[in-house]
Amino acid sequence: MVMTAQLFLQEDDAQQAQGPSGRQAPRQPIVAGATVRDESARPIDAKVLDMSATGCLIVVDGVIAVPSNISIGIAGIGRVSAQIVRRNGSRYGCAFDERLSDAAILAARAVETVVPFATSADPLPTGADMTETLPEFQRLPLRTRALVIVGASLALWGVVVTGVVAAAAALS
After folding, report:
1. Ramachandran angles phi, psi of 44, nearest 5°
2. Are 33 and 45 in contact (CB under 8 A)?
3. Which whole-number Å values give the CA distances from 160 to 146, 167, 168, in the listed order?
4. Which of 12, 56, 130, 163 has a CB 3.0–4.6 Å from the CB of 51, allowing a cystine?
């Protein structure tokens, strides 16, 4: 069995500033929904698994080219522009174009709800499957419906005429 490892000297200030993985900031675990838009601006639902001030790890169902420019809509932060820098299956490593503040990362960790964007591949429910569960309603007879309509119309005209007579009396 062969095992590979990397050793780093503690005196190497440049390596310590980036961390052992080459990252510029430590990642914090987070589970938040997001919407990724690629260069064609098509929305792709995603989940953010971890985040730092300089990047994040996302999981998407679709395929995004590596490298590519994207924008990520993250709940609590808003839209952030980034670069896809690596891919491992459905997981993508992203580097933010501008460093995030600590407050933005805390806001993203506090909010964990993003409404997924509906696409033609994921149609909205039509309610056709619910027709069997609705109780059957019975219409009133035609004569009763006609009397209700005529009576309501006469009552509304009575309100209008009363208002006009009251306004005319107030003016004179």
Report:
1. -130, 125
2. yes
3. 21, 11, 12
4. 56
DSSP 13: H
Q: Mean of the pLDDT values across residues 119-126?
A: 58
Structure tokens at 24: 């510029």
Please tell me the pTM assigned to this model. 0.50
43 cis-preceded (ω within 30 degrees of 0): no
- pLDDT tens digits, 94-113: 898 988 888 888 877 776 55
Burial class, 50, CB count within 10 angstroms (exposed 0-12 / middle 13-18 / buried 19+)? middle
Query: Which one, of 137, 54, 64, lies nearest residue 101 by Cα?
Result: 54
E-strand ranges in the chain read 28-37, 43-51, 55-60, 68-74, 78-88, 91-96
How many C-beta neighbours within 10 Å does residue 168 have?
A: 9
What sections of the chain are H helices per DSSP? 13-18, 102-110, 142-171
Length of the chain: 172
* 168: alpha, beta or left? (left if phi > 0; alpha if psi -120 to 50): alpha
**C-alpha gyration radius of the chain:** 31
